[in-house]
Amino acid sequence: MKNVFEKLGIFILNNRPVIMAVVLLLVLLSLQGAQYIEMASGTETQVSKDSQLYKDYDHLFLNTFSTESVIVMVEGNDVKTEDVVKAADRLGQQALLVPGVTKVSSAASIMKQINYAESGRSKIPNSDREVRESIESYPEYFENLVLDETHTLIVIQIEGSSTSQQKEDIINNIEIALEEADFPPGYKLTVTGSPSLRLDIESEMGASMGVLLGIAGILMVVVLLLVFKHVRWGLLPLPVVLFGVLFTFGAMGYLGVPMTMVSMAAFPVLIGIGIDYSIQFHNRMEEEIHCGKTSSQALVSTVKNTAPAVLIALAMTALGFVSLFTSVVPMIQDFGKLLLIGVIMCYLSSLFFGLVTLYSFDWIARKNPCGLFRKKGDEEGKVGENGNNGPKRDLENSLCAGNIPTHEPGAIEKALKKVTGFTIRHSTVILVVAFLTCCAGLYADQSIPIQTDTNSFIPQDMPSLINYKNMQSIMSGSGDHLNVILKVDDASDPELLEWMDEFSQHEVANRGHVYSATSIVDLVKERNGGTIPETSEEIQAIYDEIPASEKGEYIEGGQLLHIDLDIGTAMADLEITGIEELRDIVLADIQWMQPPPGVTVTITGNSVVIIDMVAGLTTGRSMMTLLGVFLVLIGLLVVYRDIVKALSPIIPMLVVIGWSGLVMTAMDIAYNPMTAVMGALILGVGSEYSILMMERYFEERDAGLSPVDAIYQASSTTGTALIASGATTVFGFSALIASPFPMISSFGLVTVIDVLLAMIVTFVIFPPLIVLMDSHRGKKLDIFEKLQGLRKKRQAGLTNT
């Protein structure tokens, strides 16, 4: 493999201008491709389009019956006045002109309906006294709209299948209409409702993520200046990885990978991983130059020795991420796709753009009379197959040999050697303690709670959330819903409507979290004196009289009917597990109260989708992690065909997973949908550290060093770069802890913990582990060779006799 990469290094060296031109072209193409990225936040990001749940919710309910409500809350001294009602009427008329608005309900619309029924004229009362009399005469019609003396609502229903952009356009038009409605001075007007809240959440997350990534970049600059100061141009890895992220944006656009709320968190991950690649290349090339090699020789040697190791680490990281594809949640699968694309782009950026730029900087420094590391006789140019243009040097030798001057070890290198020495001297105690604590952590992980209250994932002090909660607090039984869809042969069957009425009353009377049940039956009874007609013909005649805007929520054609169960704030009160139990209770009630023959009942709705989405994100985390471990192990066996090299990086990562469970238990941190995938992520990210350390260890072993000397050399050279890359990753993710979104903040905290644990096991557990395993293998080989020797002697003796 190294011969292939040596040729690649020579190719890079001899084609530097072409490579930089290609990089520039890729930048332009990526900027174009990034414009094709779409933000996805619909049902297709939560459940698979092939699942029955998606078909029931998206096709059967969302596109047939669903509407969402933008609510305008009017607050003032007295909302039961002519001026307020007429302003609400003006707003309603303007809102109905907005594409996507299906219905507007307010005190004004109710009064117009009452007056039309009484006098044949659809009009608003002309005095405050008449307005108040109308409200007090028909309290049952106004109870959900005129909440008290100081609060009234205007409910603007929009199509449930509207996209995020369409909802944003609708809300913007409603806000313009609100200004033109001319409400009396002194009244507070608040636009709220679930569509408005979700749009504000998306906007807030995008804005806060941009700020946090900026903070992460600043922190990365600081840590590179502190930890990577032993090399020249120590800030170069940051722009290199940013190029890789830019290429990732372009690939996303061209490949049609959507941007979701989860995939936004992939970019800090990519920066943390990608900068490792750049730092490893940068550190090795500077090491080669310190050993007296020319820029050309250093570049070729770096590609030959480091590129294969980093590529293997990348492959194992990718295998860890592949386990994300087993998730039943599409946005987690897209998260995995994005990470795979990203690590490849960051590797290519580091290998080509990073090394060519570093070569150019060094070449300029050498040509400058005051440049660093300038040596007489150094001449840069194209090289042959041996990678030399001066006296021949062995490109496989990464150590400074003979009379070639070396740089003085830095403080980090000295510290790492001391740590390595301590771990080797106390290897037995360290490995036993690691094993026991790992087992304890894996056991403790099973009892870590899972945070399922979706309201806790967003900032509690966000104004739109405060408005939404305020609206819910003054509206009895408003909020979440369970949607019961009936597939029937005849929607006008009296027996069917009787069953729907009986079932609805039973749920409201016996299920504490079901506040109301509405269906087409309510509209039929309203037009038939409070009873259900006895014949299908009478029912069909009433159907024909009901305006399409009113019955559209409850009936579609003659085969689909909808019962809307209002479960209030159950999502916050009961959380996911409680909602799931409530759904199962309603299903049991349906089984007990059997509907008429030929009727198929399906329970769906946004609450049901969230139940399955959160379950898919959290319950499969252990299997996802185990699959990741298995894939990485198989990958290492395929690459190395050596059980020691395959197990050496895996065992430390198992320790990290176990320790992570202990730390989360001790800190009382619960899993959420983002942190639930951390097992697969840390396996992919952390295994890189052990693989790179192992590659350098066996490189030193091949050079003739003993196991102990090899691990000393590996930890003091490669370890320095790992400290820099690990510290950069930690600092980058530390910025996420400051996120106003608790879910992202928790994700950042858990990631920082796991990366720190990965660094600890790389320098504390890996050195004694690799020395023990390698030495044990050597002893077995010695015994085997001795047995072979004895066998040959015995055979020779038998031949002589």
Detail the topology: elements first, then pairings.
Blueprint lengths: L1 H13 L1 H19 L17 H11 L4 E9 L6 H14 L5 E5 L1 H13 L8 H10 L1 H4 L8 E9 L4 H17 L7 E5 L1 H34 L9 H19 L10 H25 L4 H28 L7 H38 L43 H15 L1 H19 L17 H12 L5 E8 L6 H17 L5 E3 L1 H7 L9 H10 L2 H4 L3 E2 L3 E9 L1 H23 L7 E5 L1 H13 L2 H20 L2 H24 L11 H25 L4 H28 L7 H23 L1 H35 L1
Antiparallel strand pairs: 1-3, 1-4, 2-3, 5-8, 5-9, 6-8, 7-8
Membrane topology: Multi-pass membrane protein
Main location: membrane
Organism: Methanosarcina acetivorans
Count of discrete alpha- or pi-helical segments spanning 4 or more residues: 28
Residue stretches low in confidence (pLDDT < 50, at least 5 long) are 369-406
Determine Rg (CA atoms, Å).
34 Å
Q: Please describe the biggest sheet, giving its number of strands, its sense, and whether it closes into a barrel.
A: 5 strands, antiparallel
Subcellular location: Membrane
Protein name: MMPL family transporter
Organism: Methanosarcina acetivorans
Membrane topology: Multi-pass membrane protein
